[in-house]
Amino acid sequence: MSREPTQTWLTQEAADRLAAELAHLEGPARTDIVKRIEAARAEGDLKENGGYHAAREEQGKIEARIRQLRHMLEHAIIGTPPASESGVVGLGMKVTVDIGGDEMKFLLGSREIATTDIDVYSEKSPLGSAIMGAKIGDTVTYTAPNGREIKVAILEAEPFA
Question: Which family does the similarity line name (predicted)?
Answer without folding.
Answer: Belongs to the GreA/GreB family.
